[in-house]
Amino acid sequence: MKRTLLILVTFMLMLTAVCSAAEPRFDNMRTVLIVNTAQRDYAAQFMKKRLVQPFRIPYWNRMETSEVLSPADVTLATMRALSQTYHADIVVTPIVRTWYWNQYHLFLRGDDDEIMTDCMYNLTVYAYNRKDDTLKSYSSYGRERDSISVLNDPDTILRKAMNEIMKKLPYKRIPTDLETPGVIPSPLQVKETDGGARILINTSPAAI
Question: Which segment of the chain is annotated as a signal peptide (predicted)?
Fold first, then answer.
């Protein structure tokens, strides 16, 4: 029994090692640090879940930290310090500036009472770029008011707002600003013989 268990454990360790080795990574992979805020409401949690989605391997090495920032803490100096501490190329944090969601009865004449939803929001993602040493913000804000039959799920508003922010955020699932790999010079060169003929020669012959 012990031998069988030992074989099983060894097999699982080998399988884990193979899977890890097969995981593709790029030399120009960048590290992004996701920083939590002191805000614990539903809107803040939704923003965090949506924000982390594009930052995955092989293009991104996503890190999270126990650091917690209040909205007032999100400054260039603070984000720069976090970038240096965690060796992160990009530091991002979601901030809820305004989130108001209220449902109420609208009393009309007769028996035609209606339940209404009133929503106001202002969401912002802050992003620090170590290469440029810049801190930029990307926001979505607005107000919605409609019948509960049309607007009854806060995710509808939060999803729309975060989709708008993620379109503005320049850091995508597949980065569009990665440097183009350098062109490898060809070992073949043109040489002219004594007779005037032009031939290709290999300047880096392989050893046999």
Answer: 1-21
